[in-house]
Amino acid sequence: MIRRSVPALALVLVSCGDDPERIPSTCVDCGYITGSGTVATGGSGGGGGEAASGSGATDGEAVTLTGQVLLLDDVDFDSGPLFPDPTAIRVEGQSGASVVGSWDGVEPFSIDDVAGGPEVWLLSTPPMNGFALPTLVPLDTTMPNMAGVVTANVPVVSQDVIDTVLSLLSVPVFRNEEAAQIVLLIEDSDGAPLAGVTVTARAAEVVAYGASGSFSDIATETDSSGLVLVANVPATTWPGSLVGVTLSGTLDRGADVRVVSGGVTRGEIGP
Q1: Contact residues for 139 (Cβ-Cβ < 8 A; gap 6+)
Q2: Across the strands, what pairs with 31?
Q3: What is residue 160's three-state secondary structure?
Q4: CA distance 260 to 262
Q5: Do residues 237 and 154 touch, judged by C-beta distance below 8 A?
Q6: What's the pTM value of the predicted model, to 2 decimals?
């Protein structure tokens, strides 16, 4: 889970756009039923603890989760093509234990007994030694259809994109395969990207900000993209651990972000 002092950190929700080859990670205008999933549930940004499995599993009835896996393959980290490779999916179950499924690269996955709640964590794990990284996201599963089904696209993040961003910093950084990467979109109260926010994470090797379509470790605050990459933070295997981040400037708050070893956490922080 991600703990926060005030709401909220959430999975990206964007419109479908005009390019049929690039699908948003949650496509709310394409017949999908999910809302935004919070990634923050209390705390002050101290981090350092283990994340409890099943933390989002108590808000509603169990649901069936179905959808597709997308490859986030650009520095905007918000859309991409269908991921062609088989992918293991692990998500918090209603009982508190994990439930699992798989994506075959073609047909939508379907997983029963998924927790019903606004903060249900899902980990997509692509093949080892492939071109994508395990990716952890929160889902809001509180709005199933009449059949109890929630449909959502879930992402895996391109390894090349993360590695390229890190290699182009003023002091190039190598991705630590045992650590985690955090990609955050900082938002205002209307859900728009928020400029002027400084993100501090004591556990990180480096913090880089979106800058004119790329990322910069020289920048000291978010630009109009609202994007931040918090790189090489210590992490444990599923269900993961918590990393504390502090925001200041145009948004002041703390949050504890859930991460897994070798993976990428993708989410949003707002007021």
Answers
A1: 11, 34, 37, 65, 91, 120, 121, 122, 150, 152, 154
A2: none
A3: helix
A4: 6
A5: no
A6: 0.83
CATH classification at residue 238: 2.60.40.1120
Reported as a single tens digit per residue, the pLDDT across 124-183 is: 999 988 899 999 998 989 999 999 999 999 999 999 999 999 999 999 999 999 999 999
23, 81 contact by CB (below 8 A): yes
Burial of residue 144 (number of CB atoms within 10 Å: 0-12, 13-18, 19+) = buried
Task: Write down the number of H helices and E strands in the chain.
Answer: 1, 23
Domain count within the chain: 2
Say yes or no: 111 and 166 in one domain. no
Contact 209/176 with Cβ under 8 angstroms? no
Q: Which residues contact 53 (CB under 8 A, 6 or more apart)?
A: 92, 96, 97, 98, 238, 239
Distance separating alpha carbons of residues 187 and 123, to the nearest angstrom: 23
31 Rama class: left (phi>0) / alpha (psi -120 to 50) / beta? left
Which two tokens mark 8? Answer: 């909220």
Among residues 183, 238, 172, the alpha carbon closest in space to that of 72 is found at 183
Chain center to CA of 271? 17
- Same domain for 102 and 13? yes
19-49 tens-digit pLDDT: 545 545 543 333 333 333 334 434 456 666 6
d(CA 11, CA 31) in angstroms, rounded, equals: 17
Enumerate residues 6+ apart whose C-beta is below 8 A from 247.
186, 197, 198, 199, 200, 253, 254, 255, 269
